[in-house]
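I would like you to help me understand the sequence and structure tokens below and explain how sequence relates to structure.
___
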Amino acid sequence: MKELFRQMTICGVGLIGGSLAITARRQGLVERIVGLGRTQANLDVAIARGLIDFSTRDPAEAARGADLVMLATPVMTFPETLAAMVPHLPETAVITDVGSVKEWVVRELESLIGPGMALVGVHPVAGKEIVGAAAAEENLFVNRRVIVTPSQRSTPEALAKVEALWRATGANVERMAPADHDAILAHASHLPQLVASALAASLESEHIDGKLATEYGAGGLRDTTRIAASSAEMWRDICLTNPGAILAALKLFRGSFDQFAQAVERGDGDELIALFERGRNMRERLK
């Protein structure tokens, strides 16, 4: 595949940005990769692993020469980071992101970019609970879904190039309206995180007869709470930027949780079987 961008600047070289950088470099899709970060230690790891060619903690320096800017930091830092970069970017730069919320991102960023710039929102549905440049891996996106959310500032050329970049990773790329994305992901991604974190938080210091209850947990507890190890900052921002859809998802969960509680309280075995079967049916469809 031919080169798509001369310089890609990744703001936040972690699991997602770093993994994309591996593909972009190995397939010759980007000539130069610059990493912008808050901590020098993580940038040093990115340099050592060959994910980026140059590192900086200065947004203006990171912006110079970048015809593609990828925002991969916590969502609520996007506007401040981009605002500091825009005056130093090429007039036709393409701005993209990998945030888990899209309507808020589009609304906040469209007003910041220059008249000749394009904005292409992206959400790779391939996250893990691990973070940082050390977590980047070559095949992270293979056969995973990558959702592109076009907006009024998405040009056909920018869309085509950003989608080509993601297809090169082996991902399945699809388009979706920002509002639809946020409603769907609130149920499929944001709700599971909140449930896992709430469960883990409720058991964090629970002692019974002097024994820490979690020490007696096995695979079920570990599996159910795995994503509770995710970045608190990242998930705080997702909750604050997608509150309506997340509250709707929590209401749905609360209704199901209450059904379980009522069945246990009544000693209703038939209802419990029905509820457990509904859960198993959904889980079987994920395989």
